[in-house]
């Protein structure tokens, strides 16, 4: 069943935010281009689909007034994100939200670029240090496995090259006792269910199987929100979107 943007907006506005008993919560997003906000209508990662964007027209998955700060950077590895000063930007944002007395969740998703330069263990060591620093500031690290690329084998299965890096994030989450959002597995399951044609309708451009257009950002931002809800049941200011969540859960294209 195809959903128009108007339908999604109506659904989003027709439901209420999480109950007032939910602790004041902030989100800080850390990662590469598959998390980063797009600055034009057909570019970016899932970040705008979680935080919302008036620039690209994405519907927020978090309640109005919830700080959702996207510090992800295009082309980043866990190493270059630190070396390029972007991690310091993230830490500043985290400190600011913690100082306000807000529960601060920090999602960390890498892998797409780390896989090009180093083995999974290198990324794992960097993730471990990031987790340590986030906790040192009084915030909560949430490790996220890599969003799948939408490249397919002839039999309709995903041609997955990110698996070892997703597995490394899972290992570090286990070792460090952090929450884990297995976006890699969830996104593979979904795009295989909807098939290549529908999956490629979420591409930034027809041949770009990594980055997302507005519809892709909306779908995978919602997927991330649903994974957060499952990991923190009843605790977070996540707005419900029953139709989109149902489509994702049941492998039905929304666009």
From TrEMBL:
The parts of the chain that form a coiled coil are none
MF GO annotations: hydrolase activity
Signal peptide from the UniProt entry: 1-17
Please list the residue ranges annotated as the SGNH hydrolase-type esterase domain: 30-216
Q: Which UniProt keywords apply?
A: Signal
Q: Which SUPFAM superfamilies match?
A: SGNH hydrolase
Task: Please give the PANTHER family that the UniProt record associates with this protein.
Answer: PUTATIVE (AFU_ORTHOLOGUE AFUA_2G17250)-RELATED (PTHR43695:SF2)
Instruction: Tell me the protein's name.
Output: SGNH hydrolase-type esterase domain-containing protein
Q: What is the lineage of its organism?
A: Eukaryota, Fungi, Dikarya, Basidiomycota, Agaricomycotina
């Amino acid at each position: 069943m195809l959903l128009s943007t108007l339908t999604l907006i109506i659904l989003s506005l027709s439901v209420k935010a999480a109950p007032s008993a939910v602790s004041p919560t902030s989100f800080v997003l850390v990662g590469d281009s598959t998390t980063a906000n797009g600055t034009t209508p057909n570019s970016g990662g899932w970040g705008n689909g979680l935080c919302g964007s008036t620039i690209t027209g994405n519907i927020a998955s978090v309640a109005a007034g919830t700080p959702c700060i996207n510090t992800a950077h295009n082309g980043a590895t866990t190493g270059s994100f630190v070396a390029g000063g972007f991690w310091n930007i993230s830490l500043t944002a985290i400190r600011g939200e913690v100082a306000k007395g807000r529960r601060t969740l920090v999602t960390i998703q890498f892998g797409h670029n780390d896989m090009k330069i180093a083995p999974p263990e290198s990324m794992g060591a960097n993730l471990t240090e990031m987790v340590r620093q986030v906790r040192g500031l009084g915030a909560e690290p949430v490790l996220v496995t890599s969003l799948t690329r939408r490249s397919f084998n002839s039999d309709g299965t995903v041609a997955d090259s990110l698996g070892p890096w997703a597995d490394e994030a899972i290992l570090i989450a286990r070792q460090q006792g952090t929450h884990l959002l297995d976006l890699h597995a969830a996104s593979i399951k979904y795009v295989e269910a909807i098939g290549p044609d529908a999956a490629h309708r979420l591409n930034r451009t027809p041949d770009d199987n990594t980055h997302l257009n507005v519809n892709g950002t909306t779908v995978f931002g919602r997927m991330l929100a649903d994974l957060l809800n499952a990991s923190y049941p009843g605790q977070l200011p996540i707005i419900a979107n029953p139709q989109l969540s149902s489509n994702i859960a049941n492998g039905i294209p929304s666009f």
